[in-house]
Specification:
- The complex is a heterodimer.
- Chain A is an alpha/beta fold.
- Chain A is built from 16 helices and 14 strands.
- In chain A, 44% of the residues lie in helices and 16% in strands.
- In chain A, the strands form three sheets. In chain A, strands 4-10-9-8-7-5-6 form a seven-stranded mixed beta sheet, sandwiched between helices.
- In chain A, 49% of the residues are buried.
- Chain B is mainly alpha-helical.
- Chain B has a single domain, classed as ACP-like (Non-ribosomal Peptide Synthetase Peptidyl Carrier Protein, Chain A, Orthogonal Bundle), CATH 1.10.1200.
- Classes of the chains: A alpha/beta, B mainly alpha.
- The interface between A and B is small, with 13 and 10 residues.
- The complex binds pyridoxal-5'-phosphate (PLP).
């Protein structure tokens, strides 16, 4: 028997090791549809509890929107359930083309190609457009899926300090001997909620003849006056060469992603990107619902406006309550606790108060920067936010951290 | 003073340390402490290869071998003799 007791024990030991390091991910089950209020089973086997959800990527509250659900039903009836094919064999319906065109229009890009997820888009795009004579220069805190994609590609790569434009310039200078250069960043960084200075990056790319790729997964649909993303926010809509983004967050939250950008680069992805060629087509029901999402967002900015208002209100209230947040303007608000155990303990106590949030610590965020990440949604009402802030005040008081700055918290709990 | 060690330490400070007060010495753990993540380690590898005109294989340039300035210099010395 290949899977012998000894082999089993080795794998079990590895899992135990994860547990001992405090990195084990517990199971949590949601019995309701996604929304501001959810029905949670945690720990596994415990009775359900109602909780306010402050850790979903449901930024625009569209995950369970009636119009989106109706569009999904209609598409299901019209176009069936699955395609049972990759895109290029017999997996492309007219609605796949329609969604690609709608996304291009929404993002202001020349062309778009759908992928099963943004993880897949990021895994495929680099290898499809770059080769061994080229170099990728990436922000150090880019998303794991971009890191994986860069590692799958034969191009050389280098990194620059998080959002440090001087350092990026230095690296562009250093690599000016390469054939082509692609600068890579997240538009909004998912752990810190900070916005990459895309305008300055465009200027630097122009100066050094480099291309720019932005992963706008945490921006598409709500950042910028019309929700088009970080490139709209910074007024550089025609200057970004490639955007990758997901439909799995603000844009309905089901799944799917895309590469959107210069026509030739997108065409190369269609010809060469492995996750596009070797993974099944996005299900029609998701395609139909995502088209409706784009229609909703193109016809009104009401939802992103409400999210902006909620974000400003939460940031103001949580600061007034004496918690230490990372400044910014996005709906990702890290409540900084620095110490991993403190972040974990406080998140658990928040759940007991009916607020569902998660503590993040090394290696998900840099060592000594543990936090609870709060994510706002247009689905939240003022009462929800008030309740969340009140719970933070109560739990923060219990741990004696209200009004303390970084030094105060670190002196008390260590790093 | 060992010039190679000082040069490597200088590069590490410049490339990875933002906080002026953070003390980094020849045997401060870089990778295992999280100061340098395995993705960003590439700049250090490229620097070493360029500066000392050598080529490090993936088997050699492991996170363990790159964990301190001392261990990096040890690795370089194996190549330069
Ligand atoms: C910046 C970023 N890119 C890509 C992804 C992956 O998106 P998807 O869920 O569509 O694979 C995520 C999701 O966690 C993300 O935060």
């Amino acid at each position: 028997m290949a899977y012998s007791d000894a082999v089993r024990a080795e794998f079990a030991g590895e899992i135990e090791g994860i547990r001992e390091k405090g990195l084990y991910k517990e199971k949590r089950f949601i019995w309701s549809s996604q929304g501001a209020e959810i029905d949670v089973e945690f720990p596994e086997g415990a009775g359900h509890a109602k909780a306010l959800n402050f850790c979903a990527n449901n930024y625009l509250g569209l995950s369970s929107h009636p119009d989106v659900i109706a569009a999904a039903h209609e598409t299901l009836d019209d176009r069936g359930y699955g395609m049972s094919s990759v895109r290029f064999i017999c997996g492309t319906q007219d609605i796949h083309r329609e969604l690609q065109d709608r996304v291009s229009e929404f993002l202001g890009m020349e062309a778009t190609l759908l992928f099963p997820s943004c993880m897949d888009a990021n895994a495929g795009v680099f290898e499809a457009v770059l080769g061994a004579d080229d170099v990728i220069i990436a922000d150090r805190l880019i998303h794991a899926s971009l890191v994986d994609g860069i590692r799958l590609c034969s191009a050389q790569y280098d990194t620059f300090k998080h959002m440090d434009m001087k350092h990026l310039r230095k690296k562009l200078e250093l690599h000016s001997d390469k054939r082509r250069t692609l600068v890579v960043t997240d538009g909004v960084f998912s752990m810190d909620g900070d916005l990459a200075p895309i305008d300055e990056m465009c200027d630097l790319c122009d100066e050094y003849g480099a291309m720019l790729l932005v992963d706008d997964s945490h921006a598409s649909g709500f950042i910028g006056p019309k929700g088009r993303g970080t490139h709209e926010h910074f007024g550089v809509m025609d200057r970004v060469d490639i955007i990758t983004t997901t439909f799995g967050k603000a844009l309905g939250g089901a799944s799917g992603g895309c590469v959107s950008g210069r026509r030739e680069l997108v065409e190369l992805c269609r010809q060469k990107a492995r996750p596009y060629l070797f993974s099944n087509s996005l299900a029609p029901v998701i395609v139909g619902a995502t088209i409706r999402v784009i229609e909703l967002l193109s016809s009104s900015t009401e939802r992103r406006d409400k999210l902006e208002k909620n974000t400003a209100y939460f940031r103001e209230q949580i600061t007034a309550a004496g918690l230490n947040i990372r400044e910014g303007e996005t709906p990702i608000v890290p409540v900084m606790l620095y110490n991993a155990k403190l972040a974990n303990d406080m998140a658990r106590d928040m759940y007991a108060e009916g607020i569902y949030v998660i503590g993040f610590f090394f290696p998900v965020v840099p060592a000594g920067q543990a936090r609870i990440r709060v994510q706002l949604s247009a689905a939240h009402e003022k009462e929800h936010i008030d309740k969340c802030v009140e719970a933070f005040r109560k739990v923060g008081e219990k741990y004696g951290i209200l009004g303390l700055d970084k030094k105060g918290i670190v002196d008390k709990y260590g790093l | 003073m060992d010039e190679m060690k000082t040069d490597v330490l200088e590069y590490v400070k410049d490339e990875y340390v933002d906080d002026e007060d953070e003390e980094v010495t020849f045997d401060t753990p870089l990778i295992s402490s999280g100061l340098v993540d395995s993705f960003s380690m590439v700049s250090l590898k490229t620097f070493i290869e360029k500066k000392y005109s050598l080529k490090l294989s993936d088997e050699e340039a492991t996170p363990q071998a790159f964990d301190t300035v001392n261990s990096i210099v040890e690795l370089v010395r194996k190549h330069t003799g």
